[in-house]
Design a protein that fits this description.
Layout lengths: L7 H9 L2 E3 L4 E3 L5 E9 L5 E8 L8 E7 L3 E8 L4 E2 L5 E2 L3 E4 L9 E2 L11 H11 L9 E3 L5
Length: 151
Amino acid sequence: MGGTMLTQQEADSLLNMLKLLTDNGIVNFPETGQAKSLDLISENGKEKFIIDINRKSTIKVKKCTYQKRYRTCITLLRLDIEGSPHTNPDGEVILESHFHIYKEGFGDAWAYPIPKIITDPSNLIQTLIEFLKYCKVTNIDQLKIQGGLLP
């Protein structure tokens, strides 16, 4: 897979690939104003991915972005919780919480309503687990998540 742009077939293949968290230990969920990254590897060991958990907003405590990147620079999936409304290239506006999926020629410029697998976007820990499932991470049960919750 060359360059920084992927074909839709390449992107779909990467999205559908089964993945493993490389750190099976404890994840300290970021506090408000912080961010954290988790490393993933494809089950065949050939492809590497990064999951970002971004809570850099200090104003909206429930604002959070979950993002799955490939080769550090290509965003394949992004889930924005309580972000700003997003305007798609065709002018359609998607509300505050929305989902981005890589689209050939547009990268992550298109947003969609949140998929049904995300059951309660205000529960950030549960949403992380559901996002990882959506990302086809197979060893989520070994993950121990601490911190990051409201006092």
